[in-house]
Task: inverse folding
């Protein structure tokens, strides 16, 4: 299975996504990347968001975003398991 790639935009950190990024970096199975810009400015100004394996995920708060990211990773892992069976 490929390692999940979780990307964050520096401009979105005012929502508290920097704390979420730090939490996710603690997991050695995740590739967590911070960019100066992910070219998604409208959403970036409106709500906490990140990209998981190239797919945008967002939530009403940074804490909820963490849950959304974890669920998206679990979903991808489940699909990978189906492909292996």
Result:
């Amino acid at each position: 299975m490929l390692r999940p790639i979780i990307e964050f935009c520096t401009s979105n950190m005012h929502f508290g996504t920097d704390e979420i990024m730090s939490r996710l970096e603690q997991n050695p199975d995740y590739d967590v990347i911070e960019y100066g810009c992910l070219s998604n400015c409208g959403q970036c100004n409106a709500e906490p968001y990140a990209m998981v394996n190239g797919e945008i995920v967002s939530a009403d708060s940074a804490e909820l975003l963490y849950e959304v990211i974890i669920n998206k990773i679990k979903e991808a892992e489940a699909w990978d398991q189906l492909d292996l069976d």
Remarks:
- The chain has a mean pLDDT of 93.
